[in-house]
Write a structure and sequence with these properties.
- It is a single chain.
- 25% of the residues lie in helices and 27% in strands.
- It has 366 residues and is α/β, with parallel strands linked by helices.
- The chain has 2 domains: 187 residues, Medium-chain alcohol dehydrogenases, catalytic domain (Quinone Oxidoreductase, Chain A, domain 1, Alpha-Beta Complex), CATH 3.90.180.10; 145 residues, Quinone Oxidoreductase, Chain A, domain 1 (Alpha-Beta Complex).
- β12, α5 and β13 form a beta-alpha-beta unit.
- The protein starts with 7 loop residues before the first strand and ends with a strand.
- The N terminus is likely disordered.
Length: 366
């Protein structure tokens, strides 16, 4: 049992998948948790010092949370997403790293005491969604998960590095490496390069020896992208990124000259046509989302004339996360963590994302 628990309460049980909902379960020790209590603005976030500890069910483990990342997905969950029903109160937080404390019936006891990263996606076919979305997640002292979702950390990977991975770096790895097949010597345009996924894309592109054109919206972020290794930087608040690409790489020609080999665009909105006009003959346009809107204008003439490959990536697999852990353990990549805040400052952490004051990842420490 984790030190610092505050005694027990007795009552009836009412359970969400992966843990109790906090309403006086039987023989439950109480923990600290940050609750999303309803859809709305940040005022719906409430700290509860008397939330019931989760109990490991059959095949499950209870993990003491050491760090959990804040993601735009947490904001979308709070605001409400079409077609996804949320049970409140909910503990969000999908990127979770910690230490296994207990296991339930039928679970391998050798997990106890191990440092782990939790793959938040349910992959057993019995339920769908993610930890921190359809069941309680990482903004608490403890979380209960299936042991099949545990990935043991190599010795050279810190708990904070691990907590930065799945939703940002896992997505970036799958998009660029598994799907996009980035190669040494290629040129890569990254829109939204200062956020969690964007910073991951820049780091991964440099790891594989690519030339990077990174776009961000402020001078401070531009300087940090330079420090991260970006070869060229574009402040899109001042300069049209397509015009900047033409100046750096030349205007794409059907004869093969000019443009970038790969463009990363998970912004969407009105950026796609300029992205198409930035890509070389036979180039790839990769996406994992559309933060500025999914109803896109596409110029089909560039699609066929320049034989552009449009490639989508949806999340990550456990193998993608293991590849990242191996690279971090080897010292080849280091997730960029902007700030680590205590759990009590979850509202401020979400504000940093909403106001786009983040470079890389924001973590919460229970």
């Amino acid at each position: 049992m984790v030190s610092g628990r505050r005694g027990v309460v007795r009552g009836w049980t009412d359970e969400l998948p992966g843990g109790h909902d906090g309403r006086n379960p039987k023989e439950a020790v109480l923990m600290k948790a940050m609750l999303t209590t309803a859809h709305g603005d940040r005022s719906v976030l409430k700290l509860d010092d008397n939330f019931a500890d989760p109990v490991a069910g059959a095949g499950e483990a209870v993990v003491e949370v050491k760090a959990t990342a804040v993601n735009y997905h947490d904001l979308f969950t709070r605001r409400g997403m079409p077609g996804i029903r949320i049970g409140f109160p909910l503990i969000v937080g999908s990127d979770i790293a910690g230490v296994v404390q207990t296991v339930g019936d039928g679970a391998d006891e050798s997990w106890i005491g191990k440092r782990v990263l939790i793959d938040p996606v349910f992959r057993d076919g019995k339920r769908f969604g993610m930890i921190g979305e359809t069941c309680h997640g990482g903004r608490a002292e403890l979380v209960a998960v299936a042991t099949g979702q545990l990935l043991e950390l190599p010795e050279g990977v810190s708990l904070e590095q691990a907590a930065a991975l799945p939703l940002a770096y896992g997505t970036a790895w799958r998009m660029m490496v598994t799907q996009g097949q980035v190669k040494a010597g290629e040129s890569v345009l990254v829109l939204g390069a200062s956020g969690g996924v964007g910073v991951g894309c820049v780091s991964i592109a440099k790891l594989f020896g690519a030339e990077v054109v990174a776009c961000a919206s402020s001078a401070a972020k531009i300087e940090r992208l330079k420090a991260l290794g970006a070869d060229h930087v574009v402040n899109y608040a001042e300069t049209n990124f397509r015009e900047a690409v033409w100046e750096i790489k030349g205007k794409p020609r059907i004869s093969g000259e000019g443009g970038v080999d790969m463009a990363i665009n998970f912004t969407g909105g009105d950026t796609m046509i300029d992205t198409q006009r930035s890509v070389a003959l036979g180039g790839r346009i990769l996406t994992c989302g559309a933060t500025a809107g999914y109803d896109l204008d596409i110029d089909a003439r560039y699609w066929w004339t320049f034989e552009q490959h449009m490639i989508g990536a949806n999340g990550w697999t456990p193998d993608d996360l293991c590849q990242l852990l191996t690279r971090i353990d080897a010292g080849e990549i280091d997730p960029v963590i902007d700030v680590v805040l205590p759990l009590e400052e979850a509202s401020e952490a979400e504000r940093l994302l909403e106001d786009r004051e983040v470079f890389g990842k924001v973590l919460l420490r229970p």
